[in-house]
Specification:
alpha/beta, 400 residues, four-stranded parallel β-sheet, binds beta-D-glucopyranose, 12 helices, seven-stranded mixed β-sheet, globular
Length: 400
């Protein structure tokens, strides 16, 4: 159980306790990680428990669901690295349910969490529980999705999500040769979950990039659907994406009418789009399908040619930044760009203190770079770099 906020004396006693070797012993994890270890290998004795005097350093991780490959990976990467650094980790998945996530977070506060790493199911629904966490002196990192309308959020770690949408749109512009196209091209949009704050960034990045071609009329959604809500996909569901595109194909793309591209915001929606195209599209032309996440099922689709591209976000890097940030917060620091300059990360990360306003405050943010993946750079970017490997039967698995 969480106890009262630690006073100076308690901190001194705790530090003495830890330094005497009787404190937390870093647990060895089965889930070996290759992350840079400079920032995450510190002994538990260097950390000051920020809100409890129970002798534990507890990190609560709240992920939105287990349905997507990525949140399972994020959860296990984060857990392995925090445990390796001597923290006790509580990891919960919310089944995409707002109430479940609120309860999970409340439980983790009660179980003594000193730090919470949260990917919100609904980015605007956590204000109350996070206010409670803040009052208990728990540090809060919004992981991947910015949590809105809460001044309790201390930091945000993610990718440049506007750029994700830009990369998807640029792929379509270049592959369809839109700058020189003489006749109309047809596109449909399958965008993200509207309660996920990232969906807006993806949508704006894609739409602003496509705007000149949509405005000139060279690129047209025959369904007439291009608004954020009308193209959105609740819970990023593959089935809903498939059903919506099937309806569009049957209503607006009869035999003789080509569809050229489906801009899907991520890989789960791309799976649905590919299924709809294979069952309900009458024409023979290759339809471009975009995605995001480089999930293994989608890598197979790219190799087969049913999906055209995805946007890869190195989750390992996102977790390395989050763990370094979290440990620094647990030490009582106020990290800024020095978190990056003092690291030996072999990837680029920027620190932003101006652009991520959550409605209550501008949240200091660490942002990583997404990469566009097609058949032509898939081997070099994903396999030669060691993120993915093939086993002796040729099956792909995530390696780092
Ligand atoms: C993440 C994507 C993911 C989507 C669905 C977004 O917030 O940034 O990587 O595909 O959620 O879970």
């Amino acid at each position: 159980m969480k106890k009262a906020k630690a006073g100076t004396l308690t901190i001194l006693l705790l530090t003495t306790f830890l330094l005497s070797g009787c404190g937390l012993t870093p647990k060895t994890s089965q889930d070996e990680v290759n992350a840079p270890q400079n920032a995450i290998n510190k002994a538990a004795s260097e950390y000051v428990d920020t809100h409890s005097d129970d002798g534990r350093i507890v990190v609560g991780i709240s992920m939105p669901d287990r349905l997507l490959e990525r949140w399972n990976k994020d959860g296990s990467y984060l857990r392995a690295q925090f445990e390796k650094s001597g923290c006790e980790v509580l990891l919960r998945f919310a089944n995409n349910l707002i109430d479940t996530q609120e309860n999970d977070i409340r439980d983790m506060i009660n179980e003594g969490a000193d730090l919470l790493v949260v990917t919100a199911v609904d980015c605007s629904a956590l204000s109350d529980v996070l206010t409670e966490a803040h009052a208990a002196n728990v540090k809060i990192i919004a992981y991947d999705r910015l949590i809105m309308e809460s001044d309790a959020v201390d930091y945000y770690v993610s990718f440049d999500n506007y750029k994700v949408g830009q990369l998807q749109a640029e792929y379509i512009i270049n592959t369809l040769h839109l700058p020189t196209a003489q006749s109309e091209r047809h596109i449909e949009f399958v965008t993200g979950d509207p309660v996920d704050n990232n969906s807006r960034y993806f949508y704006n990045g894609a739409m602003n990039t496509l705007l000149p071609y949509l405005s000139s009329g060279i690129l047209v959604p025959l369904s007439g659907q291009s608004g954020f809500y009308e193209t959105s996909t609740a819970q990023w569901s593959t089935d809903l994406a498939q059903q919506r595109l099937q309806i569009i194909l049957n209503s607006y793309y009869p035999e003789g009418t080509d569809l050229d591209a489906v801009l899907c915001a991520n890989d789960s929606t791309a799976l649905g789009a590919v299924r709809a195209l294979s069952s309900d599209y009458a024409q023979k032309n290759k339809v471009l399908v975009t995605g995001q996440d480089a999930d293994i099922a989608n890598i197979y689709s790219i190799i087969e040619g049913t999906q055209s591209m995805t946007v890869f976000k190195a989750l390992r890097q996102e977790s390395v930044v989050t763990v370094s940030l979290g440990l620094s917060l647990l030490e009582g620091n106020t990290p800024a760009s020095d978190l990056i300059t003092s690291s030996d990360w072999d990837f680029s990360c920027s620190y932003n203190t101006t652009d991520y306003d959550n409605g209550s405050k501008t949240v200091p943010s660490y942002l990583l770079e997404p990469i566009s993946i097609t058949q032509s750079n898939l081997e070099a970017e994903l396999f030669d770099t060691g993120y993915y490997r093939r086993n002796s039967a040729g099956l792909i698995y995530a390696a780092k």
